Structures are given as C-alpha cells and as structure tokens.
Amino acid sequence: MTTQHTSHGLLSRLRAVPGIRAVSSYRREWLVKDLVAGVVLTTLLVPQGMAYAELAGLPTITGLYTTVLCLLGYAVCGPSRILVLGPDSSLGPMIAATVLPLVAADGDPDRAVALASMLALMVAAIMIVASVAKLGFIADLISKPTMIGYMNGLALTILIGQLPKLLGFKVEADNLIGECVGFVQKLADGAAVPAAAAVGCCGIVLILVLQRFLPKVPAVLAMVVLAIAAATVFDLGEHDVSLVGELPKGFPPFTIPHVRFADLAPLFGGALGIALVSLADTISNASAFAARTGQEVRGNQEMAGVGVANLAAGLFQGFPVSTSGSRTAVAERAGARSQLTGVVGAALIVLMLVLAPGLFRNLPQPALAAVVITASLSLADVPGAVRLWRQRRTEFLLCFAAFVGVALLGVLPGIAIAVALSVLNVFRRAWWPYDTLLGRVQGLEGYHDVRSYPQAGQLPGLVIYRFDAPLIFANAKAFRDEIRRLAGADPRPSWIVIAAEPMTDVDTTAADVLEELDETLNADHIHLVFAELKDPVRRKIERYELTRTIDPRHFFPTVEAAVAAFRLRTGAEWTPSATAEQPGRLDRPDRPGPDAVPPPPADEQ
C-alpha cells in the first residue's frame, strides 16, 4: 500500500508539470501544424535573437543560446500552449544598463556574458518566488498611462542608440542626450558609411512595407536573406560594412556564472526592474492570446514558467527573457497548437549551430540594427499618449513624466519612476477623492450629484454627503474638514447623512478622527448619520467602539431610510437646491460629477 501510494503521489506531481500534462493530452492531428509553425518561427527567432543580444551589449551568439534554452524551459513548465518566449527588445536596454557599467574598461565579453547570466538567474529566482507567493498582482503596479510613457521613452532610447550602428559607426555616450550629440557630431564629420546606411535604411523600409502590405510574408527573414545576398554579391565587408562573422560552432556547456560579490547588489536592482517588466508583458500577452484560443490565464503558473525559462538560459550563457507578442502572433498565424512549435524552433537553431555556424557570417550589422529599430517602433504608442491628452490630462502628465524619466535618466531609473508614479497616483486618488452633496431629482429615483443636477431638491436641516473613497489616514482630515464646513453652514443642518456606500474601509486613524468629529458635532446638536455602510465596515466601527459616541440608531441601510427617518422626526419638506450659493471645496468647478449630463472635462482629476 505504501509503495502504491508513493507511486500514485509521484504520478500526480508529474502530471502537475505543464509540459508532461501537455504531452499526455497531445493530439496527433496537431503534429504537422506544430512542425510547420516551428520552421516558420525559427526564421524570426534567429535574426531577432542575434539583434537583441547586441541591443543588450552582448555577443551575438548569446542571443541564440538564450532563445534555445528559454524555449525548452518554458515548454516544460509554461502553462500556455502557444506563448513564445525569447530575447526581447524591451528588456535589451535594461540588461545593457545593468551589465555594461559593471564590465571592465576593456569591455571583456566573457565578463559581460557572466554578468548577464547571473542577471537571468536572479530574474528566475524573483519570478519563481513571486509565483510561489502568488504575487502576480505586482504587475498592476504599473498603470497603463505610465507604461505607455515608459515604452515610448524606451522606444526613443533604442532608436537613438541604434542609429549609429545603422549608419556604420559608433558613439560612446552614457545617456540619451550624449548619444544625440555624439550622433550629430559624427554625422557632421562624415563618419557615416554609405554602404552601411543603404543596407540599414533599405532594411527598415523593407520590413515596414512587408509588415504593412504583405503580413503573411516573414518580413525579417526576407530582409535578412536579401542583406546577406547583398553583402556577398557586393563584397560589403570590403566597403567598411561590419558583418556578423562566423558564429562559434556547437552549444555551450552547463555553466555557473562567476561574478564578484560587489556586483550582486546592482545586478539584483536591475533584476527587479526586468522581472517587473517581464511579468507585465507575460500577463498581458497571456491574457490576449488565452482569450483568442479559449484558454484560462494562470498568472502564477506563467510566472513560474518564465522563471524556469530564465533559469535555463542563465545556466547556459544566456540572458533574461520575456514573452514576445510578435513571435507568438507569428506562431499562431503559422498554425501552432502546442509548445512543440517552440521545441522545433530550438532544435533547428541547435542544428544550425552544430552543422552550419557560418550561415550568417555575411549578415551586415546594419541589418540587425534595422531589426531592432523596427521592433522599437512597435513598442511606441504615440496615439495612446495623444488619447490621454484628449481624455485625461493628469494621466497624460503621468505618461509624460515616465517618458522623460526613461529618456533623460535611463531605462532602470525610468521603470522605478513609472512604478513610483503609478503608486503615488493611487495614493493621490485616496488622499483627494471625489466628494459631493446629493439631492432628489424630480422624475429620477434615488439621490443624485448636485453638480450634475443643480435643480436637485434639498430638505431643510438635512445634508446628504458622499465621499467616494475608503476613509483612511491619508484622507481622514480632509473628510473631517469638509464635514465641519457643512456643519458651519447658515442655516445649520441638524443631520449630516453620509452616503457611505463607496466607503470600503475605515482604518484606526480615521476612526479616531470620526470619534472626535462626532463629539464636536454632538456638542452643537448636529448628528452624524451613516447610510448604506457595508457590513464589514460597520463591524469595524463596532470593533473600534465608535458606537459609544455615534448613536447606533443613526446607521441606516439606505439613504431613503435615513431621509424618511429625518422627515418623520422633523416634518421637513423638499425645497430647490441652494448648493450653488454655498462656498467651499465642494463647489469647485474643476471637480465635476461622475454622472454629469454633459460629460466631465478631459482634465478631471
């Protein structure tokens, strides 16, 4: 019995591994489609892997090592049937910004590879730990506006950084402004190589034209083949055009990267930023393709799959990877049905490295720059930024600040700025939420925002106030000050009813403020009344012992019930609103209501 139980437990654990589960449920009719899709995918994997390795400041061959291992690692542990991982244009500058400052002055490529591999292992550890701890929500730390700004800044950084390579020369600079100045100076000095510029510019045009008008044609492959043909026929190597050259034959051995202890802290900082961007990309791409294929998104398993892919890459001289929307789309269009597509792509790359390492020796470096530049253009979302400007100015400012942070301070500070701005924006909304008075509108049920309906009726002696946020330490004093202002109006109200449905929490700081506020109001014979307070929040108020000062009879299930109780007690009748004549914070014209009848202006909050 013990042996059978142990065997059954082992089988259950093995079936929990996504790759083994996929093999057990594989359908024979998928095989041909997966094989064909794997061949098609390889035509994109090879040039992009080489190009993104150089974007990261690493030898070209490391991009192919990374591609092979991450595809195999994700095939074993990744939950998605068709998601494709690999070197990514959004991660390349982050890797370079982390690794290159740590490389010795002579630019030792072996040291750069070791640092990049350790970076991949750190990213793997972060992703796996986050998966175990179920921290997928961390991807939400970057809001869409700040992500748009970050990606636009990243696209500009990549574009400016690749322009010298596109034109056949190099620029040594530490920031975007230095790169721009150096590029213009070298261009004015005649450093551009005409043959290199022709290859690079024609490559960009060819990729963009094919992607626009012939999307089924593998644009990158077509450009690469033509560039190699041009380099061979016109002997571009003799015309000062840099070529990729012969790739090392074979495959790297299992390698534990050796780095100095002093390098671990800066590497870990870079790994955190890379893991965050990779996580956001992964959840976004997984959600998009799962919706199209009918799969369920498993965020924590996706993190584990990406973590294992990075682990595999880091142990074989690779660098950090992420999911790729473009490569996944190519695989999907080619008919991919499972991760066998990626395995086929990895196997073909290995065969190329073993049997034909010289296949890309005549590939011009400007052609790789063209691949990176066209990829950077796909990162940019200028229409998204314009839409933010038209729809919500404050979110555009967040977008612009993230853009400037990346462009002027660098990609790693840029991601930190993007996260900080997103978190601060959430805090700002909690600190200064929307609030308003409510009144009765003839012909409409319920009680409505007096900004949207200035004609809303009021009951003499009664104020209905809505505060659209949890009541916490950050906004409790603002809430108190507004209630005091309402209590000091002429004539004074006898009841202030809080329409508390939006209040999802009351913390201890806010509870102390409420207790002091209620005691002050009671001294002036004004009652603080709550309506529509959620049961969990009501239980917290009782646990805080606030019902010692706030009369338990002043909690009502609905605003209607509170109003009915007030009318029964006072006999008050409805009158037209006088809100427009009341001074104070509630009457600012720049804070329109959510149900306004015309729509709120673009710069609301």
Summary tags:
2 domains, STAS_dom_sf, 6-stranded mixed β-sheet, Transcription Regulator spoIIAA, transmembrane helix, disordered C terminus, 22 helices, SLC26A/SulP_dom, single chain
Range of helix content: 55-70%
Secondary structure: number of strands? 10
Mean pLDDT: 87
Strand content: 5-15%
Largest sheet: 6 strands, mixed
Summing up helix and strand content along with how strands pair, one would put the structural category as mainly alpha
Topology, please?
Elements (H helix, E strand, L loop, with lengths): L1 H15 L1 H7 L6 H25 L4 H18 L7 E2 L5 H8 L9 H24 L11 H24 L8 H13 L5 H20 L5 H15 L30 H30 L5 H16 L7 E2 L1 H9 L6 H16 L9 H15 L2 H10 L1 H17 L1 H21 L3 E6 L6 E3 L7 E2 L3 E6 L8 H12 L7 E5 L8 H16 L3 E5 L3 H9 L11 E2 L2 H12 L4 E2 L29
Parallel strand pairs: 6-7, 7-8, 8-9
Antiparallel strand pairs: 1-2, 3-4, 3-6, 5-10
Protein name: SulP family inorganic anion transporter
Keywords: Membrane, Transmembrane, Transmembrane helix
Pfam families: STAS, Sulfate_transp
How would you sum up this structure, described in words?
Residues 574-605 are annotated as: Disordered. This protein has 605 residues and is mainly α. The chain folds into two domains: 30-412, no CATH class; 435-587, Transcription Regulator spoIIAA (2-Layer Sandwich). The chain is 58% helix and 6% strand. The protein contains 22 helices and ten strands.
